[in-house]
Automatic annotation (TrEMBL):
The keyword Heme does not apply. One of its GO terms (biological process) is mismatch repair. One of its GO terms (molecular function) is endonuclease activity. Keywords: DNA damage, DNA repair, Endonuclease, Hydrolase, Nuclease. The lineage of its organism: Bacteria, Bacillati, Actinomycetota, Actinomycetes, Micrococcales. Coiled coil: none annotated. Belongs to the Vsr family. This is DNA mismatch endonuclease Vsr. Signal peptide: none annotated. SUPFAM superfamilies: Restriction endonuclease-like (SSF52980).
Amino acid sequence: MSRLRRKDNEAELAVRRVLHAAGYRYRVHHPVPGQRRRTIDIAFTRAKVAVFIDGCFWHGCPAHGTQPRSNAAWWVAKLAANQARDEDTTHWLEADGWLVVRIWEHDDPRGAAGSVAAVLRGRR
């Protein structure tokens, strides 16, 4: 687990590359307004669009998320807390006028970037 990258991981970089190649400019690991310890993976500050690229294990993907067998009770609580924090962050940003886009790490980077681009075109 310690070898997994928390930020700038492969899925994040792939989506960022496609967005950048399409001409979009964004902020990386931008702090969530009013929440000191939380960050937005890809933030379009002028359009107020927040993009989160969620890992299947850590954020409980319905298709690929797994539950460890060792210390199962602790992991259930930990993963549930992660999902609750994700929901809280989404509600916090939406209350501040942001539009939140959540992408799973297993999603195709081109398709994910296309979805983000469509959202950005809709916000203008």
